[in-house]
Design brief:
The complex is a heterodimer. By secondary structure, chain A is an all-alpha fold. Chain A is 80% helix and 0% strand. Chain A starts with a helix and ends with a helix. Chain B has a single domain, classed as Up-down Bundle (Four Helix Bundle (Hemerythrin (Met), subunit A)), CATH 1.20.120.80. Chain B contains 6 helices and no strands. The chains are: A mainly alpha, B mainly alpha.
Amino acid sequence: MTSTDHAVDHAADIDRHVKIYVTVFVALMALTIITVAISRLHLPVPEAVTIALIVAVIKGSLVACFFMHLISEKKLIYAVLALTVAFFVALLFLPTLTHFNGFWIHG
Amino acid sequence: MEIPYTVEVRRDTGLTNGKIGIWLFLASEVMLFGALFASYILIRTGSPTWPRGDSILNVPLATFNTIVLISSSVTMVMAWASLKRNRFGTFRIYLGSTVLLGGVFLVVKYFEYSHKFENGLFPSTNNFLALYFTLTGLHMLHVIGGMVVNAYFWGPGAKLWKTNPEWFANRVENSGLFWHFVDLVWIFLFPTLYLL
């Protein structure tokens, strides 16, 4: 273990972590209620999708940063995730190419 | 032969092998679910009409399940924190709660699925339901997988705590990373399928 890990493992630090976990839990609950409440407004689809995605991204980031400890992780893990995000974004945008009659789809 | 770098970190990666292993696995999982989300976008945008999720699915039940899964993520991280505080008894309570909450999620999903089948709604009925059953079904398999691993660490796997507590805490942390990922996927599935 590195000295940093030892510092994190210190009991006082763990107590601080636990307080953060509880705060994140409350925030996630509140955001869940907000998501459902907004969906009841029956907004037009583009607005509804945008808002729902923003709230989901905030919730997902809270889980990743604090529960998965990504807020203080090693460089190699950030590198792996950066690569994953790049491929993931490419994957999500692939379907939109079909709307442009792209040469790679229709030869 | 001993498994290398279970507690001690590798100099080149700065990580234990288990930690880098679980993150690489999660990266592949992102691509798996990413492909399905991309399929969802393609099918939905290509369809002339699309039903609102809440006209077919049960939003209150899914909201309850969202709360259950988020709670289970908190109990999971608290289980790991308990080990770091040397409180094995508390660890067992939290990890046991995580497994039970996973069970509650599955029971609710069972009722949701049975209700759909009773009303003649199957994956073959339409594209929306095909996507709903594929995405939630795959997610459910992940919940089951996570529960099996956590149940192992609650039961027989916990023996390691007596001989190598740091290694055991690392194993629980890695299992937790998977469990949080399962929670994270649901955070996106819930609005995508039920609310939009």
